[in-house]
Amino acid sequence: MADPPATSGIMAAMITTPADPDFGPAWSASLARVPEITLREWQEFALAICDEADDIALRHFRRDLDIERKPDRSFVTVADQGIEKVLRERIKARYPDHGLVGEEYGDEDGASPTRWIIDPIDGTHNYIRGVPLFGTLIGIEHEGELQVGVISAPAMRERWYAYRGGGAWNRGLAGVRQIRVSRVAAIEDAQILYGSARDTAASGFMPGFDALMTAAWRERGFGDFWGYALVAEGAAEAMLETGMHPWDLAGPVVVIEEAGGKVTDVFGERRIDAPSFVGSNGHLHAEVLRRVRQAPGA
Asked: What is the C-alpha to C-alpha distance for residues 133 and 155, in angstroms, rounded to an integer?
């Protein structure tokens, strides 16, 4: 597969051109805030502790589970809690001054400007029902900018990972391969993915969702990390979701951007604390945003 254009625009409200310096692999590399040797070390450690996370997740998968319902009515399992506890222990033992943010146990500030953002099991509802689309997500942030992202999906025997300037990679049944977003630049030729159509409609953030899906070549509800991974691999052109949290996005953002893609909320802001998310190959990002914000009949 040919390399994607090295540049387009991360914050632009228009379709960008290859001359735009604010998008693509070169732009992503410019976001590195620490030396490459440190980025590699962080990534290698994140991958290593995901081995333990994978073991815990698979030990309980498709078996009787202790399940609790949280105040927001979402579910949590003994595996979610066990994975996050182990990851926190390992990170603090290796990097005692680093901060932590996790879905199950909240924030733990550190003396360093570096923090690890953890989703122990993304796709908990899949996990509970025996669907193999679940994974551990890790993002590492330094001085407010995400530096490393890891997605580990043990039941699929797949991992996606990236650090700033190092490219995006998949390790799975086909071995290790570098991944890149697609070059598709028209909605009519695009495969567009989403999390939950019902939640998207209820959120009010994407009034043009139905019209966008109708206009697309193909639409599928591959939610959670899987949609992000497919965009990064070039198998889909955009992933839309609402109702996320920073731990849902921190890992996937680095993977998508290092693969040459673009990530914003529906208003075009690049952030992981927004209640809406659009990740794309970049070439049709502005058009997706325009259409998804357009109210029916407007």
From this structure: 7
The alpha carbon of 8 is separated from its chain's Cα centroid by a whole number of angstroms, namely 20
187-242, pLDDT tens digit by residue? Answer: 999 999 999 999 999 999 999 999 999 999 999 998 789 999 999 999 999 999 99
Contacts of 179 (CB under 8 A, 6+ apart): 160, 168, 169, 170, 232, 233, 234, 259
| Single pTM value for the model | 0.89
Residue 189 has what DSSP assignment?
A: G
Q: How far is it, in rounded angstroms, from Cα 292 to Cα 13?
A: 13
Indicate left, alpha or beta for 53 from its phi (over 0: left) and psi (-120 to 50: alpha).
alpha
| CA 231 remoteness from chain centre | 10
Number of domains in the chain: 2
CATH number at residue 96: 3.30.540.10
Using only C-alpha atoms, the chain has a radius of gyration, in whole angstroms, of 18
The set of residues, in sequence order, having a beta carbon less than 8 Å from that of 143 and lying 6+ positions away, is: 33, 113
Report the alpha-carbon angle 104-106-111, nearest 5: 140
Residues 41 and 145 grouped into a single domain:
yes
